[in-house]
Amino acid sequence: MEQEAPVGVNEDVGDAKPGFSRIAPAVGPLLVLAPLAALPLFGPGPNTVRLLFVTLTLVTASVGWNLLGGFAGQISFGFAVFYGLGAYTAALSINAGIPPVVSFLMGAAVASVASLLIGLPTFRLKGPYFAIATIGVSEAVRVVMMNVPWTGGASGYRIVEKGRFFQMHHYYTALGLAALAVGISIIVRRSKLGLALTAIREDQDAASDLGVNPFATKLLIHALAAALAGAAGGVYARYAAYIDPDGVFAFRNGIAILLMPIIGGVGTIWGPVIGAFVYGLIHEEVVANFPQAHLLIFGSLLILIILFEPAGVVGLSNKLMRVLGRERKD
Amino acid sequence: MPPILSVDRISKYFAGLAAVKDVTFDVEPGGIYGLIGPNGAGKTTLLSIIAGSLRPTGGAVMFAGNDLTRKRSFGAARAGVVRTHQIPRPFRSLTVLENVEVGLRFGHGSHTSHAPQAAMQLLERVGLANSSRRLSALLSVGDLKRLELARCLAAQPNVLLCDEVCSGLTEAESAQVLDLLCDIRRSGTTILYVEHNLKAIMKVCDRVIVMNYGQKLAEGPPQQVQVDPAVIEAYIGRPTGN
Amino acid sequence: MSAADLLNLFIAAVLLAGVYAAMSVGMTIIYGVMKIVNLAHAGFLMLGAYFVFEAYDRFHIDPLVGVLLAFPVFFFLGMGLHWLLIRRIATSDQPTLTSLLLLFGVWLVLQNLGYLIWGNSDRAILTPRTLSSFEIGPISFPTVRLVVFGAAVLSLVGLELVLHRTWFGRSVRALMQNNEAGQIVGVNVQRTAQVAFGVGIAFAGAAGGLLAMLYSFSPDFGATFQLRAFVIIVLGGLESFGGVAVGSLVLALAETFSILVLPASFQPAIAFSLLVLALIILPDGVAGLWNKRRRWV
Amino acid sequence: MRNPFARRLSQRSLGLLSVLATAMSVLVLLSPALGQDKGAEEIRIGVVMPITGREAKPGQYQREGIELAIKQVNDGGGIFIKSRGKKLPIKEIFYDDGSDQSRSAGMAERAMSSDAVVAVIGGYSTALGEAESVMPDRYQTPLITPGAGATAVFSRGYEYIFGTLSPIDLLGYTTAQYLGNLVDKGKLTKGLKVALALENTDHGIDYGHGIENWNKEHPGYFNVVFSEKFDLGATDFSGLLQKVKNSHADIFLADTHLQDYITMHRQYIQSGMYHQMISYGARGPEADARKALGDATNYIIAGIWWSSKLPYPQVKKFNTDYQAFTGHAPDSWYAATAYDAMRALAVAIEHAGSLDKTAIRDQLRKVELKDSLLPGQVLRFGKNGQIQGSFVIVQNKPEDKVDIVFPLDAATGESIAPKPKAH
Q1: What's the CATH number where C238 sits?
Q2: Are the beta carbons of D10 and A24 separated by less than 8 Å?
Q3: Residues of D in contact with B98 (CB under 8 A)
Q4: Residue B242 lies in a domain
């Protein structure tokens, strides 16, 4: 079998033109942000806005996951915990009369604290054992939340906000948060922290031998990732106005958050964004249009991606561009 | 001169079997110390203990007055004790330059500011400057060994722990690497050099420690150790008859 | 609670352990040989359940015979799946994300096939055995659970025999202990992996049939069992069959007796807390206990 | 520019990003176009039900009930809409929520916001109904739930939600009332001990409350000695059942979903337990359960919203129509509440005389379905939107017979109480 480059890694492509590459990092985000920010100009229907809103919260959670799973290589199945805690914290705060933005921050903070509590014991485990442990943590937290009386337990919890419902308001909150997440992701990637994360992903012991503290670095990035997932959960909760443990803490949420970067391209900046859009839009349309066969279609899609393009959509587009580039040269 | 590194009655047991047993020696600053012994003598285990990758079962490692015994490997590296690996372990998705940057930005020297060219200078020193932008996963074995060294040097160690840096290299490549070690010593770094190959050790070392079955067998200048009957026996086996 | 009650609870736990062991064996084989966590396990449990159901419903084949028939059928199904998909992903000595997701995809597909073929009814197999139980003094033994327990013990014993008496078993053991060494001494890794995958799926299918005697099932049947099977193989040391028995017993006892001190609604948390605890108390996984010995030698 | 690797990555994806941006713009531009021009010549009604996942079977039965009602309306040419001056047919837009709360809310929202429906019928099971119940007021589109009965759904002051299931606490209350009646008749003795096992949802909580309430009003009849919640979808109930056994209760009342009913009752029988009366809440007479448990379901009582045994002519007609439409007889109550929800909606639309959603809501508040299938024969939504009908208690009898045993005026057979020991 051919030796493949690690997931999310591009082979050397030669040097880029220096002038172009300096503006490139700024152009990318703007290119995505501009049409999304100008959305009302297109006069979209509420359903489009809803779809984009949900997708943007997914983007945030998925970019968060990618900080830990993609950059640091620590695969977690437990992000539903942070998503759910963020959702519940924000819900409780909003009902207590705290302004929504502060509530989202509180959701992020609670998720971060939880990430430390989870990370302290589980980051001593390596590779697959960490992933396995997160499955256990996720399900245990869900069951406990089903039985916590002051959040309504399994009956769920309702957010009551006075005044009219402004969908665009929610939309821009989600857009802002997603932009923040991508921004954080870019900064982390280009920082000293990003270098440490890649080193840990590639060889934790060797990184440690060179002075990188793997444990502390992983805790830090876990907290940051959890904060993003928590804030995303909070934003979603305010929109949904009703949350329950089986919904927000569901194991399948953890799976979905992990699937999106995989579809898009693990360990890249834009992979999780693209993955979240692909997942959010395709999944919704498939569910709506093929209620009898949506699992079949989605499962087959997943199998095909894994077998033929493990680097996700980003990997696929890179391959395409390389092929096109070669033709141009010839 | 006080020793820069002292190993004090270090032992390591794996499931009751002694890999290292009561080893004691001092390393004075500025030399190349050889640590030799046949396969399975416990050299790499000892090196890992000094570097903080392994916890000893008993004993202590002191470095410039600090106790390294309880420190993990990143603590040792930040204090100034850095190791190489026998089989190079590059960060495969990083370029050669970035691999070096990890050492530069997290190692012993990370708190001092350094010129942006520092990484390139190091690569020039080991002869990898032309490959600086290549992915480390694509390097040849020889280049990987050089990268391994460059990365550790980037951490600006006071004591460099080298684990068989010549294994798998051609005669000519080995010679280059050994020259490099001498060069590193000249710039003031102390080297503890684990090697299976006696010839390489004899060429560059100021002092040699011989291990067998996890214990220290002999210690002294290369010429002296070379003729030690216990050492010869360990390497060649007990002479039969005569 | 009287002694007889406690004894009853203990018997229930042991019989539940039998159920757990039966459903975990297949997952262990595949994990042991290929280091793949078979996320499609639930799908094959479900298919096994329907297989035995159809055999009983259409051809009046006794479910126990149905379970035996499931072995060869699912063995070839597993071999086929390996040939079609699994062999295309890179092997590793650790569970890879790729394999997890591939099998997750397979699970989704199997589930949907189940819906397309059998619809969404809750099916169940009802034989005279199903509801009967017999009593010895104050202790009652549900017949089906005894049958399942017996089948689980038989599978474990049978598997041990196969592993120690045949070339396949020796190859499997070699790979389970050390993949590289296995290759060096001339084990055909691909071939062994394919057969092992087949055997793993065969056990999953048969276990599904056994579960069908106990529970009602629909196409999304199996998820809770799959997660528990996973907990069990971690508890049991991931790659030993004796471990499966131990893990099943630990989990069943913990779940059954926890109810004396905890409300029943907390019961599902037991398994997952045990999983996390086991991993943390034994930092390299339970398997690490004996792996550790080798690592630095 | 410290990290050239990062630079390379983001730059490599630029092409892809522009593709993505274009695709998104297209999507955004297209979607309003898709949303418009719908519903001109038809009345679009959204149906959100689970046909996969845990609630798949009941969800399917409810869908069938709705579709039967739609078919009957359309066979008559549709509903006469005054503002259009003609009859318009009903078009069903169906969504599977896969028994998943967030998807269920999302699908309801989708139906209301972009698929131009005038009303949604959806929400089988309390949890899914609660998730959906946020949406109707947000989009001023009426939602009728034929499958969520917990009072919590209707207690939030929402103005666009309606329900054709009577409150669950009434189910608990009626069950206790029925048992009390048996005591009065001397079939059961006074002061019997009751053990409760409730599913850990609002459904279970309401059921427990209902029983408690009746007990408070009628002290001395029963004595609840054990009450515990359990998690839905459990694989093993031996521990719970052992605790029930240890409580030495005379009556065992559980509130479960279908799967749990089957699993729990199998273990109940296997461990040789016996109680004078057994109930699994609203489950009992389902065909799937009969197939799975056989004679073991005999004498189980169930409090349900509807039974095909109800002696009304419209029920007889419904039974035949449903059989013809689906090829099987109505299984328990599921199809009936959904069928009536759709019929009530059709009446409200006709009264509204237009496809205005608020007008339809106003008419739903006044609607009175005089030939309702449900007990009492008249369907009327209460102030909070939920109907306040009554329940029937049915008892399974040997040879697949199911008799209504309560209320007495609708009874088709005598209660067999206490349950015979051997069978």
Answers
A1: 1.10.3470
A2: yes
A3: 3-5
A4: no
User: What is the total count of domains within chain C?
Assistant: 1
Residue B161, SS3 per DSSP: strand
The owner of tokens 């079962």 is B57
Q: What is the CATH classification number for the domain harbouring B210?
A: 3.40.50.300
Q: What subunits touch chain D, counting only 3 or more CB pairs under 8 A? A: A, B, C
Q: Is B98 on the interface with D (CB under 8 A)?
A: yes
How far is C-alpha A99 from the geometric centre of its chain's CA atoms? 25
CB contact under 8 A, C293 and B54: no
Looking at the complex, report in whole angstroms how far the Cα of residue C275 sits from the nearest Cα belonging to chain A: 6
d(Cα D199, Cα D219) in Å, to the nearest integer?
Answer: 25
> Which chain C residues have a beta carbon less than 8 Å from that of B15?
292-293
Structural domain contains residue B83: yes
Domain coverage including residue B181: 5-236
C-alpha dihedral sign at D30, D33, D39, D40? negative
For D183, residues 6+ apart whose C-beta sits below 8 A from its C-beta are: D189, D190, D192, D221
C292 contact B CB<8A: yes
Question: Cβ contact (<8 Å) for B95 and D5?
Answer: yes
Q: Is the CB of residue D399 less than 8 Å away from at least one CB of chain B?
A: no
Number of folded domains in chain B? Answer: 1
State the best of C233, C280, C286, C289 to mutate against chain A, taking most chain A CBs within 10 Å.
Answer: C280
Q: Set out the domains of chain A in order of their start, with CATH numbers.
A: 31-291 (1.10.3470)
Closest residue on chain C to A140 (Cα) = C269
Restricting to C residues 201-230, those with a Cβ less than 8 Å away from any Cβ of A are 227, 230
Tracing tokens 């009065």 back to the chain, one arrives at D184
B158 inside 8 A of chain A by CB: no
Residues of B in contact with D2 (CB under 8 A): 101
CA distances D52 to A38, A286, D96, D243, Å, are 38, 14, 7, 33
Question: Among B176, B180, B184, B226, which Cα is nearest to B201's?
Answer: B226
Rounded distance, CA D385 to CA D155, Å? 9
Cβ A279 vs Cβ A297: under 8 Å: no
The answer to whether A199 faces chain B, any CB pair under 8 Å, is yes
- Put simply, the chain A residues between 107 and 136 with a CB less than 8 A from any chain D CB are none
User: How would you write the pLDDT of chain A (330 residues) with one tens digit per residue?
Assistant: 333 334 333 433 334 344 454 555 566 677 778 777 877 777 777 888 888 899 999 999 999 999 999 999 898 989 999 999 999 999 999 999 999 999 999 999 999 999 999 998 888 877 667 887 888 899 889 888 988 888 888 788 888 887 788 889 999 999 999 999 999 999 999 899 999 999 999 999 999 999 999 999 999 999 999 999 999 999 999 999 999 888 899 888 888 898 888 888 888 898 999 889 888 877 777 777 776 777 788 788 788 878 887 777 777 777 777 777 665 554
Nearest CB to D52 within list C120, C132, C145: C120
Mean pLDDT of chain D: 86
CA gap D301, D395 in Å, rounded: 4
Q: Is D5 on the interface with B (CB under 8 A)?
A: yes
Per the structure, the complete domain to which residue C242 belongs is given by: 3-295
Query: Residue B104 to residues A157, A199, D41: CA-CA distances in angstroms?
Result: 51, 13, 73
Which residues in A lie closer than 8 A to residue B98 (C-beta atoms)? 195, 198
Q: CA angle, corner D106, sides to D105 and D110, nearest 5?
A: 120
Decide if A29 touches C, using CB distance below 8 A: no
